[in-house]
């Protein structure tokens, strides 16, 4: 889990992509909706 972090000070401790405030559940929802990784990167560029 080097790409996911849990910090109680970030989004109340929800798992996020390390170094961002992008919650893991959002990435999973986008994948379930049919987005591929390239589309997700366009929608959520690295901060």
Structural class of the secondary structure composition?
Answer: alpha+beta
Number of helices: 2
CATH topology-level name: Arc Repressor Mutant, subunit A
Shape: elongated
Spatial ordering of strands, largest sheet: 1-2
Q: Portion of residues in helices?
A: 25-40%
Instruction: Write the element-wise H/E pattern from the N-terminal end onward.
Output: EEHH
Question: How is the main sheet built?
Answer: 2 strands, antiparallel
Overall strand count: 2
How much of the polypeptide forms β-strand, as a percent range? Answer: 5-15%
Low-confidence stretches: none
Question: Rg from C-alpha positions?
Answer: 11 Å
What is the straight-line distance between the termini? 20 Å
Q: What number of structural domains do the residues give? A: 1
CATH class: Mainly Alpha
CATH architecture: Orthogonal Bundle
In CATH, the homologous superfamily goes by the name Winged helix-like DNA-binding domain superfamily/Winged helix DNA-binding domain
Give average pLDDT, whole number: 89
Give a short overview.
With 47 residues, the chain is of the alpha+beta class. It has two helices and two strands; from the N terminus they run E-E-H-H.
Structure description:
- The chain is built from two helices and two strands.
- The protein has helices at residues 24-32, 37-43, and strands at 4-5, 16-17.
- The protein starts with a strand and ends with a helix.
- The protein has 47 residues and is an alpha+beta fold.
- It has one domain (4-43): Orthogonal Bundle (Arc Repressor Mutant, subunit A).
- It is elongated and about 30 Å long.
- The model has no long low-confidence stretch (mean pLDDT 89).
């Amino acid at each position: 889990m080097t790409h996911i972090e849990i910090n109680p000070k970030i989004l109340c401790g929800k798992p996020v992509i390390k170094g961002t405030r992008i919650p893991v559940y959002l990435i999973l929802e986008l994948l379930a909706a049919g987005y591929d990784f390239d589309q997700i990167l366009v929608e959520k560029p690295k901060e």
